[in-house]
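Input chain follows. Return structure tokens only.
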Amino acid sequence: MSAPTPDTPAGDVTRLLDALRRGEADSEALFRRLYDELRRLAHHHRARWHGNETLNTTALVHEAYFKLVGSVEGFENRSHVLGVASRAMRQVLVTYAEAARAQKRGGGIPDVPLDDAMKMGDPLLSEEQAETITALDEALHRLARADERAARVVECRFFGGMSVEETAEALGLSVATVGRSWRAARAWLYGELKPTPLLDLG
């Protein structure tokens, strides 16, 4: 897939969504802007993982983009887009982490969309990153059984790189509620997970 070239200023997603619903804009401009948002998010993850250059941001963007564009008709605003993108990023990272771990165990490469990058020796995640992401995802599933709202807050804040305010808008919560859920979820996760310098929930 050739990468759309972003040519709209930051913050235009909501405006483009409104224009699309009114029939005043075509989908191409919106898709370019969505791709730009995903690029920003992928670079956020590269920085989050302590600048590890093994994080293949192009592969991450492309796979998350394919997961995101099918939902475009249901988007309400930029925060809603970022909330869906957070889940897409989580799914892509976890799928690849599980594939990387399976390959390390000698089980071959499962049939995942990003397997070509692995076969070419271009890893999306390091071994330590894969272990950390898998452990975090498993912990988030446990957290969701007890407090689904808190798990969604972590998904938006950690995987989506969203601010407290953006998370509140995406989830239809108050800023104060998101702040409380985020603090409680971080404390719980740090208690559940083996301490690692890679897991920065700050």
